[in-house]
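hiii so um. not sure if this is the right channel but i have a protein structure encoded as tokens and i wanna go backwards to a sequence. like what aa goes where. can anyone help
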């Protein structure tokens, strides 16, 4: 299934709705009566996520390649080179999260030392800040989120969010945590989220 994003509030004259299929991006500008189709030359790889960051549209594909999309003066898509990092663990799937003036990449990873015994593998989150001030861009690992918390869903159709001082909204909520929404509607409302502190490990049984 496809994913999409609204680039600005509906009352903005430049607001656009973008929808992605495996082969194309469809663009609708608020107030118009038609869609524009833009072919995506990505080898038919699926776009997994899309975010709007500092006026730019960024997407990530199934191979964890990062691209920037420009809509004006004409459509263009360009891959962003990101320096490879040494892997102490196996990243499973990343999330892009806008957090204030930072763009974060969050990895759900498996500790290599626990393989091949996947029945008791250790899962944990690693959080990296994308530093675009250098070329290629680099991933800077963050040990703490300070007064921020991140909210993710395993269903990739749902966007990821950041929250400042979550204690203001819910007394039990804590900063420096990654909250993951449960997938099942019949889950206990008190247990609708799983919370892990950044870099905290958890054994999956």
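sure thing!! here u go:
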């Amino acid at each position: 299934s496809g994913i999409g994003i609204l680039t600005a509030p509906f009352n903005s004259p430049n607001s656009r709705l973008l929808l992605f299929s495996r082969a194309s991006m469809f663009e609708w500008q608020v107030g118009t009566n038609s869609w524009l189709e833009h072919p995506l030359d990505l080898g038919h790889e699926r776009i997994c996520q899309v975010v709007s960051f500092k006026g730019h549209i960024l997407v990530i594909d199934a191979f964890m390649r990062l691209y920037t999309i420009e809509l004006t003066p004409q459509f263009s898509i360009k891959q962003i080179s990101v320096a490879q990092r040494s892997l102490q663990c196996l990243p499973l799937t990343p999330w892009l999260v806008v957090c204030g003036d930072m763009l974060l990449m969050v990895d759900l990873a498996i500790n290599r030392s626990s393989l091949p015994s996947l029945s008791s593998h250790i899962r944990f989150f690693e959080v990296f800040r994308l530093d675009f001030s250098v070329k290629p861009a680099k991933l800077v690992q963050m040990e703490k989120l300070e007064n921020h918390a991140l909210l993710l869903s395993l269903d990739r159709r749902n966007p990821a969010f950041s929250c400042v001082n979550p204690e203001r909204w819910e007394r039990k909520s804590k900063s420096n945590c990654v909250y993951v929404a449960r997938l099942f509607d019949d889950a206990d409302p008190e247990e609708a989220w799983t919370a892990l502190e950044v870099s905290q490990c958890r054994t999956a049984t």
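oh and The mean pLDDT is 80.
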